[in-house]
Every structure is written in C-alpha cells, then in structure tokens.
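Hello support,

Our group uses your service weekly, and this is the first time we've seen a run hang past the timeout. The protein is Aldose 1-epimerase family protein. I'm not sure whether the cause is the sequence or the server load. Input pasted verbatim:
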Amino acid sequence: MRASGEQFEIAAGDYSAVVTEVGATLRMLRYEDRDLVAGFDADEMMPMFRGAVIAPWPNRIADGKYEFGGEAYQLPLNEPARRTALHGLVSWAAWRVASHEPGSVVLTHRLFPQSGYPFLLDLTMSYSLDDKGLTCQLTAANAGDIEAPYGMASHSYLVAGQGRVDDWTLTLGASTYLTVTPDRLLPVGLVDVGGTPYDFRAGRPLSGLSVDHAFTDLTRSGAGLASAQLLAGDGTGVEVVWDSTTCGWAQVHTADRPERRFDRAGLAFEPMTCPPDAFNSGRGLVVLKPGDDHQAWWRVSAL
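Update from on-call engineer: The timeout came from a worker crash unrelated to the input. Re-ran successfully.
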C-alpha cells in the first residue's frame, strides 16, 4: 500500500492529473509535459499539505479553542510550535471513490463527530478535466441534527514554469489583506494593499518577497468569478479561477522553508471561504443548518 493510498489517474486532451485516496489530494497536475502544481511521490507522505482538501476550517484556530452555539470547544493542537489547530480534519483521512471515469473522479468522506468538533458532515470532492483545465468542487452537507460551523480551502502549490517563486510574477485582484502576528500568524487587522508590497492587482514579481497572508475584497466578474495568474519569464504560467461568492478569500504563501527541495518551489494559492481563526472571529464563517450544504468550485488552467 502506498503512503498516499490508491491513486486515481485522469486525463483529457493535453491535461493529466492524479488524485489520491488519502485526503482526496491533488498529487499531480500536468499540461503537456509541464507541472502546474508542485506535487509529491505516491510512496511519500504528503508534504506541507501539498494539494490537500482543507475542511472543516482553513488555516489556523488560535489555541484550538472556539465557542459555537453557546458551547466551548477544544481542538487538538497539530501545530504545536504556534499552539494552533491547523487546516481542519480531513487531509489525512481515507476517502472513498464514488465514481472514476477517464476524465474525472469523485471521492466522498463522512466526517464523524469528534472531540472539539462534534458535528456530522458528508463531504464530496470532485475533479474533472477538459480542454479548459481541472475543475474542482467540494460539497459539504450537514448530516447531523445541530448547526455546524464550517470553512474550507484548496491547498495546491502552483508552478508557473521554469525556476522557482523568485522567478515568477503574481497577478491577483484583491484590494485588502489581513495582517498577522509574526510568531503565530494569527489575525491582527485588515489593511489596504495600496502602497504595500502585497499589491498584486497589476502584477508583481515575487523575487525577494515573503508572503503568508489572506487576501479579500476580490475583483469579480459579472458572474462573481475571481482569478489569479502566475507567470514565468518565458510567458508560460498557470491560472486559478474560482467562485468568489462562496470563497471570498485567497491565501498566498511563498513557501519559505529550510529544506532546499521545498523552499519557494511552488506558490501556495488557496481559495478560501474565510480567513484564519474564523471560528473565533466569525468573519466569513459558514453555518450549516441540518440538511444544508455548501458548494465551492475552482478551476486550474495552463497559460
């Protein structure tokens, strides 16, 4: 058995992808012969949440503590150095395949009530390839009998082409970003991007710039779509388009790491429903009533 479980290969036109049983993770996405995301080996444990599905909360919850419905909860601290509960509960779970066709795969997972999150969710993650790229959709349904707090994100590391993050340029239509504490990366306050190093609205090279921030006030099309483009010097690149009516935030992280293999090897770009610590702030928090569901979709394409 491989470390990431069963591998589900899909392909359409010039695109190919591999999704894993563990976490319904996007392990590989390629256009022709080039990678669009930084992946990992099938026999390797997923590093740094590469390609992970993040739910039922994205990013961090301070001290793993929150209150909901008049009750106080304590989550396990899986980021002990920062004393936070990080990236939800499903990235390491086994997901079941519901359907697998040449160009698509759908996986499901039932998240049972547990310590710190006593809510019952049914999750469905679908991946579909066509000539426009890879369309992804995560649906969360409240299968329990009480309201449930919820948030999600996609955690792929984008690859524009040759080189690393310092060789690429990011364009992101977002006019506000969330400042965070330097030690724990917990929210401080919202700041206008104008006049800061984090103004990517007209495109900005990432060379020498360290980013690990959530962005909002997104530029939207008439259909409510937001987009971001990451370009290499030769004009190749990758684009993410997503439904900003359900995901009004995007996390950007330049993957500054001590390990040479991972250091700035891909740009983490995460459409999100809410910013860090939303279980405490309530900002962007989704409250699922019994029987309700929440859907979010995004598409990754070659440029």
